[in-house]
Amino acid sequence: MGEPTRDGTKAPCTRRGFVARAVSTSVALPLILRPREAAASEEGTNEMLTAPNTTETTIVLNVNGAEHQVAVEPRVTLLDALRDRLGLTGTKKGCDHGQCGACTVMVNGRRIDSCLTLAVMHEGDRIVTIEGIAPEGELHPVQTAFIKHDGFQCGYCTPGQIVSAVALLAEGVAAERGAIQKAMSGNLCRCGCYPHIVDAVLEVQAQR
Fold first, then answer.
1. How far apart are CA 121 and CA 77, in angstroms?
2. d(CA 195, CA 149)
3. CB-hemisphere CA count at 13 Å for 205?
4. What's the CA angle centered on 135, arms 88 and 74, to 5 degrees?
5. How far apart are CA 174 and CA 154, in angstroms?
6. Ramachandran quadrant class, 122 (left: phi over 0; alpha: psi -120 to 50; beta: rest)
């Protein structure tokens, strides 16, 4: 493809001519596309062109028996709302993929991974974190048993382990070692304290 000349013939395509054509095309392209984008947006047919909705909404979370007004974006997880908005950093962020159980909290008496659920989904629910396990300042029997049986080393997973154990005992579905191990399998301990953790749960189980 060559450059047209005045006498109707085409001159060979030069490097300078190619660069000039590329630059002019890149400048003109947005001017060509803009009316199409505007028309598509007006028709509501191209939602990808609109800005994401980052508007915060105010919700009320019942955490450890107290109600808190929290302003969150719809995409904020319950874990981030607890840690970043309410300052309840006892609930740990581990894998952030629901695989380690470090972020375990109780919602309406059931154990959940708080990293896998959105804060806006829990307005009106009863949420209990590790801070709410012993509200009167005295250790919960599970916490005492963890200390007695050395159920932790680095301690990072310990809040999730304890919340899970407290809920497990309330559920009453695991009364012997194998069942407790299975019921606690969603809580991982990189230090490998599993035998000590199970011993602690068994001791509290026997006291009930």
1. 9
2. 9
3. 19
4. 30
5. 26
6. alpha
CB 46 within 8 A of CB 33: no
> Which amino acid, one-letter code, is at 56?
E
Q: Any residues with CB less than 8 A from the CB of 175 and at least 6 apart, and which? A: 205
Tokens of residue 37, six digits: 């984008």
CA distance 140 to 161: 13
- Those residues of the chain that have pLDDT short of 70 are 1-54
Q: Tell me, what amino acid is at 152?
A: F
Pairing assessment for the beta strands 10-11 and 110-113 based on DSSP bridges: unpaired
Nearest to 69 by CA among 117, 123, 28: 123
3-state DSSP assignment of residue 16 = helix
> pLDDT digits over 127-141, tens only?
999 999 997 889 999
Instruction: Please list the residues that pair with 72 across neighbouring strands.
Output: 57
Q: What CA–CA distance (Å, rounded) separates 115 from 104?
A: 8
pTM: 0.74
Structure tokens at 53: 């909705």
